[in-house]
Each structure stands twice: as structure tokens, then as C-alpha cells.
Amino acid sequence: MHHALKIARLIAAGLLLAIPAVASCQIINFDPPGGTETQPAAINASGTIVGRYQEIDGDGVQPGFIRDAGGNFTALYGPVPDTTQTVPVSINDAGEITGWYSVGTNVHGFLQDAEGNYTSFDPPGSIATTPFSINSAGEISGNYSTSGAGGDVGFLRDSTGDFATFGGSGSCGDAVINAFVSASGEVAGTCSFHGGRTYTFFIRTASGVLTEYGNPFGGSVIYVQSINDRDVLAGFYTDAAGVTHGFWGNASGLHSFDYPGAASTAPTAINLTGTITGLYYDANSASHGFVRDQAGTFTSFDDPNAGMKVSQGTRPVAINLFGQITGQFDGPNGVTHGFLRK
């Protein structure tokens, strides 16, 4: 009864949103035509998936892809002819895509609008730009490197192309490792300390106030993986014994969880309803997908074609409003493919 009342209070407070449960699920495997080593990154409410892959008969060029809800693919090759890698990382419900592309050793951010038009961007002083997410307002969050002695700096690019920067050496430890933006413009991410030996997390409000937080669970690592449009975070942390656990919460407090019986638990995404997806490892170091609903109930799943050797398995990366999940799995031969669970 106490647990049910707690969930009801969270729903009333706006941290969780109740929707009907999905009765059954289907898993679809995919690779872009002529592609292999498929790595999905994000899925929007329409079921459109973006990610990257390797061309089987290519010359080392690694394109991005768009897979629409009907299963049709569009290859992404970056905004300039000599692009070697194109890596979409996030798509919003308007169909705007952000990510990064490389030309030689140079890395730049990009925005592709719903009509397929590219905009390349870099914060001032950047020598390598890495976006992480785009929200419904077209704001893009990420980090970038400079030629100075400091570590990576966080950025928020608004829909007009203006940048706000934050963190870096002296703020957020040595570097901003990642940064995810919600619909409200709140940004959450991870700070590195001592050259990456310790990680904490930060929340930057829409008004620009950045607050750093330690690991309330103990241990040296806490890593934000996602923020939903109700400003609820999900991620993982290590405890004092080095065991990895999941968490969710906000600036008011974080809550720990584990997939039952797992050797370690690593959430990767949280949707608007508070449903979390991610992976857990069994005693044989194979990975499995999980879904944790807003009531704390777990569902485990595996792609039926996934290998189950050490370091193989199923790895969800993103979940949309309707509970559709995308990610990747390793076949028994070690080759990586994409999947959609719906």
C-alpha cells in the first residue's frame, strides 16, 4: 500500500504520467540496405529511428541512417563531400535530427531539418563538437573541445543558432562528459574529475543556473544517460564495491534500482511516462534488455537472434512516448544489427 501511495504521489506531482500498458510486443531486426554493424541511437514518437552503420562494400565511409515507421531507409552522408563519418544521435518529434560528422580529424555538429536541409555548426573556439540531444523547440545540447588546456565544455544551441556554454575546467570538474536537454530547456549531464577517475552529475536550469551534485549512493561514478520532458533523469552509478546500479529522479532526489538478480544494471533512456529501458548483465556477462514501468515492474527481453556469449546480447538505447524501443544486438558471429521492439 505504501509503494502504491508513493507512485500515486509521483504521478500527481508530475514526475510520472499514467498511460495504458502495452499488451504484447514484437521485435523487428534491421540493417540499412548494403549495411552492417548497425547502431541505432534514437527514436521519436512517430517511430522514426536514426543511427549509424557501416557499408558492406564501402571504402571505409560510415554513413548515418533514417528508418521511418514503415521501415524505409534514407542514408545520411553529412553536409560536405569528404565526410568520413556521419553520426546522428537524436531526433525530435518534428523530425529534426542532430549529430556529428567528421572530415579527416575534424569533428563538427550538424542539424538536419525535416526537409533534409543541413546546417553545420560549432560553438566559438571549438575544435571538436559533439551534440547529444535535441528537444521539441530545436534546442541542441552537447559538449565541445577547445585548443586550450581545459577539458570539454558543455553547450546549448538555441533554434536561432546562438550558443550558451557551461562547465569545463574549474566548473563541473575537469570536463563536461555529456549533456541532455529536456523540453523545458533544462540540461542534465555528467562531470569528470581527476582525469576521468571520478564522475558526478549536474543539472543546469533553463535560466542558466548550473548545480553540481555528487554521488548520493557512494562510489566514484554516476552517469546521466537521459532526461525526459518532465525533467526526470535516468542513468547508472557504481557503489563503493564497484557494482553498477540504475537510478531515476530529479534535483529533489534520486532513487536506486536493479533488475532482479542481475550482476549489473545500466538504464539508457527514460520516456515522458517515466518508463525506463536499458540493459542488465547476467553472471556470464551477456547483456539483456529490460523495461521498467512507472510502478517499478520489470520486463526482460532479448532479440531472438542475439548471441549469448561474453559481451554479446541485446542493448536497448532509446524509448519513445509509446514505449517503442530501439537498440542493437550482437549475432552469434559478433556482427551488430539494429532492432525495434514495439
Work out the strand percent: over 45%
Report the mean per-residue pLDDT as an integer.
Answer: 91
Query: What is the name of the CATH architecture?
Result: 7 Propeller
What gross morphology would you assign? globular
What's the total number of strands?
28
Judged by helices, strands and strand pairing, the structural class is mainly beta
List the keywords.
single chain; 342 residues; mainly beta; Methylamine Dehydrogenase, Chain H; four-stranded antiparallel beta sheet; 1 helix; disordered N terminus
Can you give me a brief rundown of this structure?
The protein contains one helix and 28 strands. With 342 residues, the protein is mainly beta.
Describe this entry's structure for a reader.
The chain is mainly beta and 342 residues long. It has one domain: 7 Propeller (Methylamine Dehydrogenase, Chain H), CATH 2.130.10.10. The chain contains one helix and 28 strands. Strands 1-28-27-26 form a four-stranded antiparallel sheet, with no helix packed on it. A hairpin with a 2-residue loop joins strand 7 and strand 8. The chain is globular. The relative contact order is 0.12. The N terminus is likely disordered.
What is the element layout, followed by pairings?
Blueprint: H1 2-13, E1 27-30, E2 35-43, E3 49-55, E4 64-67, E5 73-76, E6 85-91, E7 97-103, E8 106-112, E9 118-121, E10 128-134, E11 140-145, E12 153-157, E13 163-166, E14 175-181, E15 187-193, E16 198-204, E17 210-213, E18 221-227, E19 233-238, E20 244-250, E21 253-257, E22 264-270, E23 276-281, E24 287-292, E25 298-301, E26 314-319, E27 325-330, E28 336-341
